[in-house]
Design a protein that fits this description.
- The protein contains two helices and nine strands; from the N terminus they run αββββββαβββ.
- It has helices at about 1-10, 90-105, and strands at about 30-35, 40, 50, 55-60, 65-75, 75-85, 110, 120, 125-135.
- Strands 1, 2, 3, 4, 5, 6, 7, 8 and 9 form a nine-stranded antiparallel β-sheet that branches.
- A hairpin with a 4-residue loop joins strand 4 and strand 5 (about 65-75).
């Protein structure tokens, strides 16, 4: 657990003045995790992620906040290094957060879902993360 947290707290590689990538707008917005790996997200753990037009990604893993960068090339997406706060929470929350962060670092393919959400897969095609848009009322 500490190794993953230490790795995620490594130096953040964000460009000082990132220009907007033409494809970043397609994913711009805030989302909530609804499926992590093959299972549905536990309602007690709310994990969020926001993609900006400038190529930054930020959110909350369930306990800690994070920020990093992402790049899109066609249907391929790569999340760069992620900086994360280091709060301690309950063991179950921390385990779920670690699974989420590992999934975030492993995503390679993205598909839009019919409800405005996003479905991410690993390089081999295994489904690892599903996001639903967060409405303004959330």
């Amino acid at each position: 657990m500490r190794r993953l947290t230490t790795f995620l707290c490594a130096a953040l590689a964000l460009p000082a003045a990132a220009a907007a990538h033409p494809h970043h707008g397609a994913f711009q917005g805030s989302y909530q995790v609804v499926a992590l790996g093959g299972g549905q997200q536990k309602p007690a753990v709310r994990q969020t992620i926001t993609f900006s037009r400038e190529g930054t990604v930020s959110g909350n893993g369930g306990c800690n906040s994070f920020r990093g960068s992402y790049q899109i090339q066609g249907q391929a997406i790569i999340v760069g290094d992620v900086l994360m706060t280091r709060r301690a929470c309950g063991e179950a929350v921390m385990q779920t957060e670690q699974r989420f962060m590992r999934a975030l670092q492993s995503i390679r393919l993205v598909q839009e879902t019919g409800n405005g959400g996003l479905r991410f897969s690993a390089k081999g095609g295994a489904h690892i993360l599903t996001l639903a848009p967060i409405s303004r009322a959330d």
